[in-house]
Amino acid sequence: MKGCLTGRPARHTVTGKVPQMSTEVATIDRERAGFDDLIGRAAEIMRQGGIVGFPTETVYGIGACVTQSAAVSRLRDIKQRPTGKAFTVHLGSRDAVKGLVPDRSPLADRLIRKALPGPVTLILDADEPSAAPGAEGLDSAALEAMFYDRTIGLRVPDDDVAALLLRAVGSPVVAGSANTADAVPARDGKDVVKGLDGLIDLVLDAGPTKYSDSSTIVRVRHNEYELVRTGVFDARTIARLAMLRILFVCTGNTCRSPMAEGLAKNVLAERLECEIAGLPQRGVAVSSAGTGGGFGGVSEHAVAVMTRRGIDISGHGSKSLTPGLIHQADHIFAMTHSHADAIRAMVPGAEERTVLLVENESVFDPIGGGEDDYARCARVIEQGVRHRLQEFDV
Fold first, then answer.
1. N or C, fewer C-beta in 10 Å, the chain?
2. Domains in the chain, ordered, with CATH?
3. Which is catalytic among the residues 77, 109, 365, 373?
């Protein structure tokens, strides 16, 4: 990125007073390197009590470092936000979310992993704000700016300028859209200057935003969510992101993992008191794949063994394991250590979501054996499936 500074530093204004000086503008070229100094300057302005306008993938934001009470008060004046009403906390990475909300539901974790960074604002429960590691050392005014009624609104922008700035500040940043309370949110740096000249200290002008639309706001309560506002992501997209996805992996995806898939669907349908076909409507998707899959159908012996249990897997077709399947899955159960290694090699970030189906033990491959071998394998798989499914909520 390449940048230049124009304008003069803004005077800190008082509500009702006409600003006397212009807002400083840093023009950023995303195609060129060398913008670290601009980011550092903007972060320092915020650390010293200034307000900075910055791009996100949705609309521009204006933010203040939460430790600077005067800056937060100025932000309240601009947005006409009453004292006691919190702002959305903007963070530079999804890992920072965990520091502010250490106790999270499985659904919250799914949305954090799948939707962030991205055009989504998550409102999460936060019962003890002062106990959160990321809030350590913050005074009551800072906590009041971040937390409201035992909740916190969190945003991790999918924008390189915003992410670098938010990480560089070193403390949580509270922010709102870059506009006064009665105006349309700015979607370009020039719009920020036009609407807020003299009211904020600096604008990082990186041109038009990617989506030019607001973030989608999702309120999460334990394992349920409410769509508060539709923005870039519609209701269908949020439902897809919120869905619990379970993936079983073996070699050919013709016997072990298809049997595990069928057994898991049966167990979950019993738990949720619904038909297997109704699991997606209950927010659960179960699938299977093979590290060497993609050829042929399911083993006849596997079909027979499952049929005796009242489970029909006859329509299953072998599927090859892909990075996309791994990225989507919330829980990945491998039949052997070699399968787990293959998953981690394909997507290193999946390591914490990948475990053996049977703890510390590989599930033997019945291929080439008789129906009794498949039945014995199915018993091992069922024990593993029932044990693993007890470990998380649905």
1. C
2. 2-233 (3.90.870.10), 243-389 (3.40.50.2300)
3. 365
